[in-house]
Amino acid sequence: MLETALANLRFASSMLLGRPFHRRSLDRIVDAMVRTQHEMGAIGTDSGEVLSGPTLDEATRQTIQGRRFRKQAIRAAGETAYYPAVFERAGLDPSRLRYEDIQRLPITPKQALRADPEAFVRGGAPSGHRVTTTGTTGWPTSVYFSDDELHLIGALTTINFLIERVVLPDDVVQVSINTRARLGVTGVTFASAAIGAPLHVAGLVSPEHTLALLSERHRLAGKKPRVSVMSTFPSYLGELVSAGRRLGYAPSDFGLERVVVGGEVLTEGLQRRARELFGPVQFIENYLMTELAPFGANLCNQGHLHFEPVVGLLELLDLEATRPALPGEPGVVVATPLPPFRDATILLRYNTEDVVRVLEGPFTCDMPRVPATSNLLGKQRLAVRHDRGWTFVRQVAEALEAVDGVPLPARFGFRAVPGGVAIEAVARDDSQTRLAIETRLAEQGVPVAGLRLVDHHDRLSDPVPLRCDLKEGSFSDREDLPAPWMQLAGTTGGQ
């Protein structure tokens, strides 16, 4: 009891004062929470304070963030190859940096990190792990993490999973994301092992293979008979839904209860159609990217993304990146992971290229005290500006995936033309489907100035990239080998 109390004090001290985390204390906190879960069946609701830190008023928040940003700036200017010239050109002394000076520092573009990731690593810092993004749109972006940083990410994921009841000891967990998504795999693997839930890192194999794994029956003592928790990308979930319907699967073939999704836009239409296949599953969304980890956001019960201010500094700039975006406007997420959460790779005012809409509180959701934005609208480089404003990926995806005549995942492209937006999509080209798509696009505020429907994504001229296309090979996917999913699930999934 005394050791756990001291561990909690060390953790609280790190959260409040920015001191380095004590690894053994983290492990003690995780172990105590796991024991409580096993013995009591649930973690108290007040345990959420472990992750969220103290409630901060605006003045206190600026004081804490300003102090931690200054500490990170001093490190960046003195110990990285990239930032000394940045501070010199800006005429800023990092040791004298005040909160109101932060906006004078130039934004760090994604291309700079992608081109030379080692220029952002502190000299002498432990940097044993090179972690890359999945590289959906080309050469992956790399970030270096120390072993302690990855351990911290795993511990924080475990604490969050316990508090939110994402993974329970009797669950069977499957990770169906590309295995190059190291942080996503690491967090779920660490948490499942700590909680005592068996886990299979299945990877991004064929949808048929994954459906067979999800329908497979297990005989592990004290565990659920089928996979009950899955981590995946929204677009791959869409592929599973399409393949499952084609193969005749039904909700009775699965035991899926919760799906953890991230990395792409998750639409209302996809959720509805996924529940038709898998049953009444719960979807758990978050916002986390390799470059910012562990700084990110959780989705509340009203659909806001809430960013914890103790972990990082969030700025929302207009789409020209020249000024703070105003309430109601779209804004690009510019973020700085703060100490003690980041130690090896330092990023100051990093342009994520992700767009959200600025919200103005107070909030009435279940996370009212934490700064919030709208849910993700998509990448700015995939959005189009036209003579009637902006159109974002979410608007088009929400419209298309709400229409049953559009196969999942929705595959589409769009571009600005006089009068609005020209859209091309894979869908049935009949009058009913076309009318339904046009109606849904209008509901999303998309000024349609042209709609072209095709029967295959190869016929799209400039499609939005999807992570489901980052497939990993498997011998079980070869046509000349027996299909094990047929042996596991029968000739049709519904048997």
Which key features would you list for this structure?
14 helices, alpha/beta, 495 residues, 8-stranded mixed beta sheet, 19 strands, disordered N terminus, 4-stranded antiparallel beta sheet, globular
Describe the structure.
By secondary structure, the chain is α/β, with parallel strands linked by helices. The protein has 14 helices and 19 strands. It has helices at 2-17, 23-40, 49-52, 58-79, 83-90, 110-115, 147-164, 182-195, 207-215, 234-247, 268-278, 393-401, 431-443, 484-489; strands at residues 129-132, 142-145, 173-176, 199-201, 229-232, 258-261, 282-288, 296-299, 305-307, 312-317, 330-337, 350-357, 372-373, 378-379, 384-386, 389-391, 412-417, 420-426, 448-454. The strands form 5 sheets. The protein has an 8-stranded mixed β-sheet. It has a 4-stranded antiparallel β-sheet with strand order 10-11-12-14, with no helix packed on it. Helix 4 crosses helix 5 (83-90) and helix 7 crosses helix 8. It is globular, with a radius of gyration of 23 Å. It starts with a helix and ends in a 6-residue tail after the last helix. Residues 1-9 and 478-495 have low confidence and may be disordered.
